[in-house]
């Protein structure tokens, strides 16, 4: 009734008012991702730099946003800002999309009166971080996909194709070669109990993920092991160093005190081993140690990064020096991923060839054996 009265005051006489039905599977629109937040930050920084008031900037960005979930998020933040809340306080109410680092940087920008500059820095930072994440995912996704396809093809051959050959072999009336017999036995296992392998694998992956989330010691063990994996380890290490340098550079340039900056930087490294190391560095800096000395004591940071940090501290340009270090390690990640792809491609081809080719040879061995006897 209230809605009908409001519409009549606007000169609209509705015949019927119905509540909009909710979508069957949650709220409409795709999930809000890191890229959406990065684009939003860039747009907001551009609006503020152009002199457009904050609330009006939210209105313009919201109208141009197609994703309903993102539009609702922007509308909610705009409403909170209109009611008198600071932008940082409004963002803090949405921790799923704006982490502690983001909120702290915005709060520092508001305090210093340079919110537009800080938002532009955050946008640059998030774009760099997403680029690094993309490179790391590329390094891990390609070999994992090819191996998964090879396993699927092998399972298909064992379950569907090899039984057809087995029916043919039974008519030979001769003993099968040992290699062929082994493959046939494996085919029997896959047909009868192959589902156990699938359930065990899926269950193991889920258990591993949950255990890593709930047990910090186990997560630390996994992340430390991952850093020692040949070829993959250097990519993860350089990625963590790039994210550390880039995040610390951005927070320090925004005016966040070094100890506070290190506290928020720790979680941005993407690796719990480096997260613990950064927290140790923060504790040492808090009691008066120099940053470069505290980093050296962890034994995890390379000499080049420590020396560049030392130079930045002495020259009073730590943020600029760390930005250069971040750019260096980002380029290192790019080069390592490209080299990794070139190195893994022939290895994967050989692996697939050996697995699939071995099955084919096993099936044709009895035919070759019969041909030689005849």
Automatic annotation (TrEMBL):
UniProt-annotated location(s): Cell inner membrane
Membrane protein topology class: Multi-pass membrane protein
Give the Type II secretion system protein GspF domain ranges.
Answer: 40-163, 244-366
Superkingdom of the source species: Bacteria
Query: Pfam families per the record?
Result: T2SSF (PF00482)
Its predominant location is membrane
Q: Which Gene3D superfamilies match?
A: Type II secretion system (T2SS), domain F
Q: Which GO terms describe its cellular component?
A: plasma membrane
Which residue ranges traverse the bilayer?
Answer: 140-162, 194-211, 347-367
Concerning InterPro entries, the annotation shows: GspF/PilC (IPR003004), T2SS_GspF/T4SS_PilC_CS (IPR001992), T2SS_GspF_dom (IPR018076), T2SS_GspF_sf (IPR042094)
This protein's record includes keyword Transmembrane: yes
Keywords annotated in UniProt: Cell inner membrane, Cell membrane, Membrane, Transmembrane, Transmembrane helix, Transport
What are the recorded Gene Ontology BP terms? protein secretion by the type II secretion system
Q: Which family does it belong to?
A: Belongs to the GSP F family.
Stated name of the protein: Type II secretion system F family protein
Native organism is Wenzhouxiangella limi
């Amino acid at each position: 009734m209230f809605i009908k009265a409001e519409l009549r005051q606007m000169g609209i006489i509705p015949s019927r008012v119905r509540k909009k039905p909710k979508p069957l599977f949650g709220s409409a629109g795709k999930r809000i991702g890191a890229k959406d937040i990065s684009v939003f930050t860039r747009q907001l920084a551009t609006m503020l730099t152009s002199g457009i008031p904050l609330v009006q900037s939210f209105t313009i960005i919201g109208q141009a946003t197609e994703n309903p979930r993102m539009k609702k998020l922007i509308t909610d933040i705009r409403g909170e800002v209109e009611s008198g809340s600071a932008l940082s306080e409004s963002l803090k109410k949405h921790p799923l999309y704006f982490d502690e680092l983001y909120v702290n940087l915005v709060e520092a920008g508001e305090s210093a009166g340079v919110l537009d500059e800080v938002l532009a820095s955050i946008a640059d930072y998030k774009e760099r971080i997403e680029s690094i994440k993309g490179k790391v995912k590329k390094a891990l996704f390609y070999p994992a996909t090819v191996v998964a396809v090879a396993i699927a093809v092998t399972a298909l051959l064992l379950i569907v194709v090899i039984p057809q050959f087995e029916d043919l072999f039974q008519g030979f009336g001769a003993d099968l070669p040992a290699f062929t017999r082994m493959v046939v036995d494996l085919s029997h296992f896959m047909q009868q109990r192959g589902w156990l392998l699938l359930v065990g694998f899926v269950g193991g992956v889920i258990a591993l993920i949950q255990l890593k989330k709930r047990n910090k010691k186990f997560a630390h063990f996994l992340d430390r092991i991952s850093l020692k994996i040949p070829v993959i380890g250097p990519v993860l290490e350089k990625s963590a160093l790039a994210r550390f340098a880039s995040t610390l550079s951005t927070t320090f340039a925004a005016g966040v005190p070094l100890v506070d900056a290190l506290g928020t930087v720790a979680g941005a490294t993407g690796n719990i081993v480096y997260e613990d190391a950064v927290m140790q560095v923060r504790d040492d800096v808090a009691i008066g140690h120099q940053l470069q000395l505290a980093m050296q004591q962890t034994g995890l940071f390379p000499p080049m990064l420590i020396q560049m940090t030392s130079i930045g501290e002495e020259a009073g340009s730590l943020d600029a020096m760390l930005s250069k270090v971040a750019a260096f390690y980002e380029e290192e990640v790019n080069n390592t991923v490209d080299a990794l792809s070139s190195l893994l491609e022939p290895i994967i081809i050989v692996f697939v060839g050996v697995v699939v080719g071995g099955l084919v040879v096993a099936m044709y061995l009895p035919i070759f054996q019969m041909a030689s006897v005849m």
